[in-house]
Amino acid sequence: xxxxxxxxxxxxxxxxxxxxxxxxxxxxxxxxxxxxxxxxxxxxxxxxxxxxxxxxxxxxxxxxxxxxxxxxxxxxxxxxxxxxxxxxxxxxxxxxxxxxxxxxxxxxxxxxxxxxxxxxxxxxxxxxxxxxxxxxxxxxxxxxxxxxxxxxxxxxxxxxxxxxxxxxxxxxxxxxxxxxxxxxxxxxxxxxxxxxxxxxxxxxxxxxxxxxxxxxxxxxxxxxxxxxxxxxxxxxxxxxxxxxxxxxxxxxxxxx
Amino acid sequence: xxxxxxxxxxxxxxxxxxxxxxxxxxxxxxxxxxxxxxxxxxxxxxxxxxxxxxxxxxxxxxxxxxxxxxxxxxxxxxxxxxxxxxxxxxxxxxxxxxxxxxxxxxxxxxxxxxxxxxxxxxxxxxxxxxxxxxxxxxxxxxxxxxxxxxxxxxxxxxxxxxxxxxxxxxxxxxxxxxxxxxxxxxxxxxxxxxxxxxxxxxxxxxxxxxxxxxxxxxxxxxxxxxxxxxxxxxxxxxxxxxxxxxxxxxxxxxxxxxxxxxxxxxxxxxxxxxxxxxxxxxxxxxxxxxxxxxxxxxxxxxxxxxxxxxxxxxxxxxxxxxxxxxxxxxxxxxxxxxxxxxxxxxxxxxxxxx
Lengths: 256, 354
Known about the structure:
Order of helices and strands of chain A: HHHHHHHHHHH
Radius of gyration of chain B: 24 Å
Helix content of chain B: 10-25%
Low-confidence stretches of chain A: none
Order of helices and strands of chain B: EEEHEEEHHHEHEHEEHHEEEEEEEE
Low-confidence stretches of chain B: 349-354
Largest sheet of chain A: none
Strand content of chain B: 25-35%
Oligomer: heterodimer
Distance between the termini of chain B: 40 Å
Number of strands of chain A: 0
Distance between the termini of chain A: 33 Å
Largest sheet of chain B: 6 strands, mixed
Structural class of chain B: alpha+beta
Number of helices of chain B: 8
Mean pLDDT of chain B: 87
Number of strands of chain B: 18
């Protein structure tokens, strides 16, 4: 029975990581097609990627969009959660539903809707519009994560702070945000990784400056090449780093 | 600092529910007052109104000589020690205690020096750099006390502060709270449902029930000569013996009660006597003989259930001396001093006469 458990584990991990492993493996291939048989290894594709100005610009754009859209989504999500958790508002159940509902709408529909709105308003497509699109899809997520972690414990601490003479601004900055820091950071990093490899909305809402997934897609149109594998590997490395940092500094600390 | 409190004509309702009705209460400077009552009696609502977390539907709250009825918590000379302590988990103990001083604009060095002083007061000076989760329940409670006292409030409000502690720790914290109150001189208002706790620490006990004050006064007076049947019951075990007017005197199923009081317009009521006031030695009021049903040893006394031979359907509780076990089935003569008896009319009116 023991053997079966280990085999199952191995198969499950292989299913998840085999595509990534082959992606990384063939990014090191010394040849023009990322297909077996493997030759090499070589780092020349990585050299080419890092020397490609357009790709590097797209990488920078992606980072910019990810950081700023996540900051915005987190801030708005926190304010909405604070308002709904701490005050009795008319129709608060309805408002909560309305805030979370966009999560169920596909990115394609959200992107198309925004495209139509921007066209109607005469707003040109840019990284700004893509960033707005990412705020739209990440706000519900940030709101849900932060709202779920607002409990009686913070509420009592906030009450104590007010009792000791703190005004609302200081209650939020000195008590609420520090106490909710794990949830806020988790929401921020999750929003960042989602924005980082989001393609559909970025594709629909950018024009001249594009994000990395859009750039990769245009590379793919000219056929498979180990170069795309190399970019993919770099992006994967970036995501893994963020997840590991999150695990070590955020969730690891909470467990102790 | 310290101040008196005066509450006039206070009413509070939550929707249709009247949590407080007609509350008039004055608390002297530096007094340790305990609001005592069962859950739902309005004691916590009254404390929240004193702290400024609720604005009463009607009536006024004066602290010192200022009307504080509508002043928000941050601007009141009161601080609250909350039931769950509500410490800031992300701050060290020193920063917790210094928080109120920080809000008052005190610099870091000054406020930390003052925080140390108050941590010293509660015996946690050496733990200033720890965080709340490293402390035991009793220690957290001390930090909450230090934090509330550090801003030098006129009035400290304590919301069931000892409820989460085990019995032994609770008793020792009671002594400590009382000692600290004596030292700082601040007016303390403390909410609890534990009458032993109330008697252990209070200068004045305010017994509340269903949104009203039933009785208030020093612990011994409220215990020995309660103003209402509810207060008599809530302050401890009591024997309730039916009594009625009979030819100028009082008659009970246990024999005539040598008391001159009558029941005013009504003909009958109850005579209340505490279990420790029943004795087997000759006193002015003879209750006849009673049979011991059972007895249990409590250290300071035997707690016995007794069936009166004159009224077999009346079960009495008596605390008898611990040196001789009252054997089940044995027969005892029972006496009491009429001066220890409190008389009340029927439970509806709950007026004390004696």
